[in-house]
Amino acid sequence: MAALYFILPLALLVAGGAVAAFAWSVKNGQLDDLDTPPRRMLVDDERS
Amino acid sequence: MSSTATMNLTTRDATAAAPAAVSCGHCGLAVPAGRVVDGAAVHYCCAGCEVVHAALTEHGLDGYYRLAGDEVTPARTTGKSYVELDDAAFHALHVRTRADGLAETALYLEEVRCTACVWLVERTPTLLPGVVELRLDFGRARADVVFDPAQAKLSAIAGLLDRLGHPVHPYRGLDRDAARRREDRALMLKIGVAGAAAGNIMLLAIALYAGIFGGMGTRDETFFRWTSMLVALPALSFAATPFFRGALGALRSGRLHLDLPIALGIVAGLGWGAANTVRGVGEIYFDSLGMLVFLLLVGRWVQSRQHRRAVASAELLYALTPRVTRRFDRDQPDAAAIEVPLEAVAVGDRVEIRAGDTVPVDGIVIRGRSAVDAGLLTGESRPVDVEPGQRVHAGTVNLAGVLEVEAIATGEATRVGQLVARIEDETRRRAPIQRFVDKVAGRFVGVILAIAVITLVAWSVVASVGVGLERSMALLIVTCPCALALATPLAVTIALGRAARRGLLIKGGDALERLAHPGRLFLDKTGTLTEGAIRLVGWDGDAAARPLAAALEAGSAHPLARALCDAEAAAATTTTAATDEAPPTVRPERSPERSEGRSRTGALLAEDVAEELGHGLRGRVDGHAVAVGSPRWVSAHATVPAAMTAAIDAAAAAGETPVAVAVDGAVVAIARFADRLRPDAAASIVRLRAAGWDVQLLSGDDPRIVTGVGAALGLAPAACHGGVTPEGKLAAIRAAREHGPVVMVGDGVNDAAALAAATCGVAVHGSAEASVDAADVFVRRPGLAPLVELFAGAGATLAVIRRNLKVSLAYNLTGGTLAVIGLIHPLIAAVMMPLSSLSVLFSSSRTRGFREES
Question: What is the pTM of this model?
Fold first, then answer.
């Protein structure tokens, strides 16, 4: 079980990285408007 | 134009053309007979729709019709020039220049309703060179525009959006928006942190629980406990700050609040768990706490989202009054009037108001005679005649002749400006209701604290202080009211979603609580109980005179004349009842194209037409001298048979407006006009009264008409208040609030302040934008039946909230009992907590409110 003492902190570090990424996206305003994107998705991009 | 779109349009048209009525290729409304073109694939109800349809297909944007689906409503374009947006002063205030030379601004768009709007508006960059990017925030109806000032003027962008059916206003809520955005981001970050912490602690907890049964080395167990604590303490202390802050606020203000028991549970749990980790014995509760904080934050976020849709009321004034006007130069009073921005008009200036224009200022008529539609401001269904010396108000519409008006008040000093200020006042001052859940929480926290103290003392005496401390702490943690806090947001969110699908837009959960208890219900008449447009309801006498009268009236913009011509056009195409559905809007439309189109309806043409303002019309039609107008005026020029006199009196007694028709010097017919009651009004009033509401009418219209309408609905004359000014409505609502809850239902700007002042304001289908903003509920379906549904649904939702509270209290009772007698195990706590939240969720989804009636 000795591997645990190494792997558990590592796993938590990865989780911490995910939280940091989430914090970055929130601060960048990516989650400000949750109403429009689900509607925008309905629209096919015909041109471009 | 793509082939699919062509097909789309023709099928649309084919299905619509099958019955007698032809519907418009753009907006779907019935097309008046005069505008039906033989052989054409697509017909338009007005020139505006034709232009929009052409603009869309020409740019290859006909996908709009595919996306819009059933949501197509008549598009409203104003045709304003928006020159004021290019003003340097405006740019300094609202436009930001970026480092790369591009300019950035935010615009508030009207009529943002569906996916098609998002799609269409965001295609602007492909239509107008110089527009780099345009993003629409659907919830706030806010468009963020990035454009190249060298290539595109802001006025051109605004003009294009206007032509697409979205009148534009500068976005004035930027500061408030920025503050709200900061709050939203902070909450979102906390949800993320709490979720990650809860998930990871849960994994550690599973290992610990498995260790209980499978055996686990002390060293490993200590490691897992310490790791849990190191994750839980910083993450949860950070994520739970909103509850700590709420609890501190509650303590300071002395008002008990649900945040208090929550914060108590979290603090006790974190503290006791940390102490036990350090001591190496006892239970840690970090897994339950993590889940608890996460769920509570999600509940809080759901609640804050409900309040998003409320639109800035500061926009109101700008939507009501025009922003350009025609002013006479002070130094050269004889020169022609020139267009200036409204801000440039000062008290004492003279402005020219043409027929069909909205009056821009409060003022006194200097020259000209006309009729003014004050319906939006006062709720009067009949136009008011004005002549020199009389006062006109901003926001009313000039119907007939050109007026020259000397301004006595402008901008916020006008009557409509003050009305808007009142609305903001009332909205701000409205006392928050003591929410049901807070009442429960107040008692709850007292009871729990008392039991905790008793547990501590009793177990200290019976066993030891350690046991007492452990069990009282377990009690505080286990009874942390998670389900209690989720009970209301869940029930309300589900109810609001269902209500929205049924065409009832409710702005917040507390509106539902405000509607659940019957009290006094004030209904506006014009546009609420009635259809809001004057129609021809009867014709007494010679039917052959009807085409003659219609031909004479064809060129007039007077609402009675329009109603007569509409009825005649409908009769000519043998359209029955096709135009009864949904009167397009309260505002009468007066585009020259429309009246021209209608004048072609009759084969008869009127000559030598003379309009006597406020009285009627005279002219020659088909060789006959015809006069149509008020009975008094017509009878001064023609003989009146006794039968006609009786018909006039009968119409006036019934609350209708009689109009006399004289042919060759004798009155031959009486046309009766009225604003018809909505078909479901009487039945709905009966049901509302049966539900316990004290129904009263509150209208700005003539008291006789109001009493007549009330009688038709079975209301006593004492319950019908006519001739009430907007200020009077506000006073009546305030007075009634002394005695209990008051619900106001209305549609006009004249109702807006009253809507804001009432315990709950309801704006009905076709309401002015001002009332929609002031009200708590906006009903998107025509008629009064949705009101009945609204009240029933609110009652059902409150019943669900009560049931949820009972469920969560039952869980707390069980958990608390187990904790007090020392039988609680962290595993039981960890299972019970999500289970109680799940059962509340299940209970909420089984609400009876806002369902299809079966």
Answer: 0.62
